[in-house]
Amino acid sequence: MLIGSSLKMYFGRARTLEWTRAVAAICAEHPAVQGGVVEPFVIPTFPSIPEVVAIASDARMLVGAQDLHWEDSGAFTGEVSAPELAEHGVSLAEIGHAERRAMFGESDATVALKVAAALRNGIAPVLCIGETDEGAPAAAAAACIRQLEASLALAREADAIGRLVVAYEPVWAIGAPRPAGDDHIRAVASALREHLADDQLDAQVIYGGSAGPGLLPRIADSVDGMFLGRFVHDPAAFGTILDEALALRGAR
Ligand SMILES: O=C(CO)COP(=O)(O)O
């Protein structure tokens, strides 16, 4: 199970490091992490990446970036390339988060360029997809599969291989009081998993959108992990979710 959090732009440097130290301390002691049941990750802002990598690597936590540029180098002021992120020890990169699509003009076309750039540089895309409005699970699954394939178009043309993390995040459930319904998540995540089952990319499907303690046991048969936000700003909540993952493994 891949379980982690994007800190978005919530914290400054001091709180990012404090949170990472607290979660790393939990992970370094937790049997779910040390026994290989859970791969934890954290996705801080760009400037905190080097310090977060230094803290996280001792606790077997992966570190991600919240975005990247699709070119490997050049005159792209303000952007950060996949090769530079890889140099810093980044192994995941979030691509196409709903907030970037809504506020920063990201389209399936730019997402596809970024996914290809991540894969060609050995960084696993955390490709964020999700339907915009609440509706029936079958329609949501169809919309997500369309978005997924549009996002993978260039990687497929390049015959890319590597690890792909698909973060299913229904847009209407992000920043909400509660996650999407269990049956909704299970139906869409299962459809995505089935769609990717024989893929040449090594794909995992994780759920995000107001997720917190208590959700994983209800959807664990359909997901490969969790993409957490506000509800793990208290590091103890991260530990609770690791406990849940461990208990699930014990129950199988
Ligand atoms: O977008 C998300 C994770 O990247 C989810 O954030 P929230 O859990 O805070 O809604």
From TrEMBL:
SUPFAM superfamilies, A to Z: Triosephosphate isomerase (TIM) (SSF51351)
UniProt main location, coarse: cytoplasm
Gene Ontology BP terms: gluconeogenesis; glyceraldehyde-3-phosphate biosynthetic process; glycerol catabolic process; glycolytic process
Documented EC number(s): 5.3.1.1
Any GO CC annotation of this UniProt entry: cytosol
Keywords of the record: Cytoplasm, Gluconeogenesis, Glycolysis, Isomerase
Reactions the enzyme catalyzes: D-glyceraldehyde 3-phosphate = dihydroxyacetone phosphate
Gene Ontology MF terms in the entry: triose-phosphate isomerase activity
Transmembrane regions listed in the UniProt entry: none
Alphabetical list of Pfam families matching this protein: TIM (PF00121)
InterPro entries named in the record: Aldolase_TIM, TIM_sf, Triosephosphate_isomerase
Cited Gene3D superfamilies: Aldolase class I
Pathway: Carbohydrate degradation; glycolysis; D-glyceraldehyde 3-phosphate from glycerone phosphate: step 1/1; Carbohydrate biosynthesis; gluconeogenesis
Cellular location(s): Cytoplasm
Stated family: Belongs to the triosephosphate isomerase family.
Assembly and oligomerization: Homodimer.
Name the UniProt record assigns to this protein: Triosephosphate isomerase
